[in-house]
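Tutorial, part two.
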Amino acid sequence: MSNSKIDKTARLGKGTTCGEFCSIGKDVQVGNQCEIGHRVVVHEGTVIGDKVRIDDGAVIGKLPMRAANTAVTKDQHLSPAVVGSGCIVGTDVVIYRGCELGKNVLVADLSTVRELVTVGDYTIIGRGTAIENDCRIGRYVKLETNVYITAYSELEDRVFVAPCVATSNDNFVGRTEERFKHFKGVTARKGARIGVNATILPGVTIHEDALVAAGAVVTKDVPARKIAAGVPARAIGNVAEEQLLENQGWEE
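Running the prediction step on this input gives:
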């Protein structure tokens, strides 16, 4: 730890190791048997559980930046970031202040998780994925590589999102003052699945166990247990019985 800067008020648990050139801020709490890589920055007040692995270059507890003309970033008090026990935080990941990760969450390399985001236990956030502010992500969710989850979205438990899926919360595409009244993210109910490179437009709800096909552009709600495909997407059939969440034998 000789090349690292660790504030005198920070507390590192038993068996925790810290690489070179790290910065551990005021009142940080790190649990037992954690592995902190090189050049990691942990900002003031952050709470990290036991047996957490944080890879090189990660930043935990970063304050958001606010541009003069931003529509969704606000000046506000944010609680310290919380990283649950057993989490793995990859190389160059940025986790913002006001974010809370449950236990055994994986945040893969180059991902960002913004302020006021909660992530449930055992969720996987794939490489290069971005979760914007004010989102709720459930348990056992899987977001694959380069997924974009727009602000004000909710993904319930067991949702699966394939690579390069994009979501939006602004039907006005950045024009007119009217847009500020209508920002709304997307909702994916329990067990919903979204195929590779699909696009989900603002305010859409994908209901329980529904499936959105690859490349679809979803402009309207998708009913439960239905398959939606096309541009724009429409229901084309039912999800096969053996694929339903209730038939997988998974623990709740």
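The chain has two domains: 1-63+80-111, 147-245. In part three we will examine how such features are distributed along the chain.
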